[in-house]
């Protein structure tokens, strides 16, 4: 709601949208020139009684014969908030704010969406183009304050196609020195207000090189220094209370204990060692002689299994002494006069010649029987006592290098 200032009311009979000629006032009111200096910006309300026409707008007062006010920017109106084209009849022109308040209102421009302090190619500023992290759309207001051609600086409106146009409140030819322009969004300039610092006579938009700054207050006093943070220390032994200061940490490298100092003494707060790993022996396989050994670990720490593959070794060397010594497939065999033993087969025995078979025997097993089977995968050591009988001993799964003595 506009507020009338100092009972300033004059009449006008001007029609159309041009400057309004002021024709004086009743004796109980004042004229504009009685309260407002020549060239001042004022806020006025104009009403055409009986015609449903009214408009509130900012205007410039010019002394003359007659005095005139020229619209700068419409604030509200019965014409959808656009400028009213006045019809005939006598209209009332009322001052609604003091001139200095109107001047401040005219200088405070509506906010722009984003601002730029670096040069922008005008033809590039179209819908979809981004400035200061904000993607633009048609109708957005953009503040350009760092153009290489400084006379291009000002407020622009993005068009649906083609280059942006200057905003109506910052048109070419406007005097804009002292204008303040808030910024709504942007990575760098959100919330900042830019002010045109050009002096009168050098502040014509589109003509003069315009300079904009974002004012800042004076630098505040330096704050007090913050307290020192905690210090990490380490060593192999237990830390002494004289080391460091309260709040410091200490890692004992030999145990992985972490200490913290409080009230002049260190105490353990945590041990950062991981769980001990367990490695069990799994399968052990005999591989072909001459092949490479294998070792695989299955499972996850801290519980894992080691599986081995061991190639068969070469035959042993050296001299074997005994009755009737014979070598069969690298296996040394003692046999009687009837013949020698062949591995993985049956051999006969006769107590009249020999009464024992010895197979790598370190823990002998004595057997008195007419027949016996020696499974060499189950044990390497057999001593077979034939006794007073004759019969057969069958050897199975006999590997190279195992010995038999009969």
The total number of structural domains is: 5
Q: How many helical elements?
A: 2
What is the terminal separation in angstroms? Answer: 129 Å
Determine Rg (CA atoms, Å). 55 Å
Describe the 3D structure:
The protein has helices at 32-35, 99-107; strands spanning 9-12, 20-21, 41-48, 53-62, 68-77, 91-95, 114-116, 130-131, 134-135, 141-144, 154-157, 165-166, 180-182, 193-196, 212-213, 232-235, 249-252, 257-262, 265-271, 278-287, 294-300, 303-311, 325-328, 331-334, 346-350, 356-359, 371-375, 382-385, 390-396. With 406 residues, it is mainly beta. A hairpin with a 2-residue loop joins β18 (257-262) and β19 (265-271). Mean pLDDT is 79; it is low at 1-5, 316-325, 327-369, 385-389 and 400-406.
């Amino acid at each position: 709601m506009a507020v009338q200032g100092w009972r300033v009311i004059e009449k006008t009979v001007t029609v159309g949208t041009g400057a309004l000629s002021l024709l004086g006032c009743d004796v109980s009111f004042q004229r504009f020139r009685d309260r407002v200096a020549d060239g001042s910006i004022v806020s006025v309300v104009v009403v055409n009684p009986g015609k449903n026409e009214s408009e509130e707008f900012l205007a410039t007062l010019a002394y003359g014969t007659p005095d005139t006010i020229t619209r700068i920017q419409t604030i509200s109106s019965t014409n959808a908030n656009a400028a009213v084209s006045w019809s005939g009849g006598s209209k009332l022109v009322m001052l609604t704010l003091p001139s200095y308040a109107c001047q401040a209102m005219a200088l405070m421009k509506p906010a722009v969406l984003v601002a730029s302090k670096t040069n922008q190619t005008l033809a590039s500023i179209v819908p979809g183009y981004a400035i200061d992290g904000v993607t633009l759309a048609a109708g957005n207001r953009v503040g350009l304050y760092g153009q290489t051609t400084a006379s291009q600086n000002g407020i622009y409106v993005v068009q649906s196609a083609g280059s942006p146009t200057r905003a109506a409140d910052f048109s070419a030819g406007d005097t804009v020195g002292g204008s303040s322009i808030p910024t709504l969004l942007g990575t760098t300039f959100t919330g900042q207000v830019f002010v045109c610092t050009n002096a009168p006579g050098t502040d014509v938009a589109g003509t003069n090189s315009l300079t904009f700054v974002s004012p800042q207050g004076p630098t505040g006093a330096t704050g007090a220094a913050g307290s020192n943070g905690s210090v990490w220390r380490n060593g192999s032994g237990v830390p002494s209370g004289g080391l460091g200061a309260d709040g410091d940490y200490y890692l004992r490298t030999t145990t992985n204990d972490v200490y913290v100092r409080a009230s002049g003494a260190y105490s353990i707060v945590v041990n950062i060692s991981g769980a001990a790993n367990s490695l069990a022996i799994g399968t052990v396989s005999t591989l072909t002689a001459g092949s490479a050994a294998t070792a695989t670990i299955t499972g996850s720490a801290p519980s894992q299994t080691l599986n081995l593959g061991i190639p068969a070794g070469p035959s042993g060397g050296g001299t074997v002494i005994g009755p009737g010594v014979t070598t069969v497939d690298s296996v040394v065999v003692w046999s009687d006069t009837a013949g020698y033993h062949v591995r993985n087969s049956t051999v006969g025995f006769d107590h009249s010649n020999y009464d024992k078979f010895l197979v790598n025997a370190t823990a002998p097993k004595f057997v008195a029987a007419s027949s016996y089977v020696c499974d060499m995968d189950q044990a390497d050591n057999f001593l077979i006592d034939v006794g007073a009988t004759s019969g057969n001993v069958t050897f199975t799964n006999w590997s190279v290098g195992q010995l038999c003595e009969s």
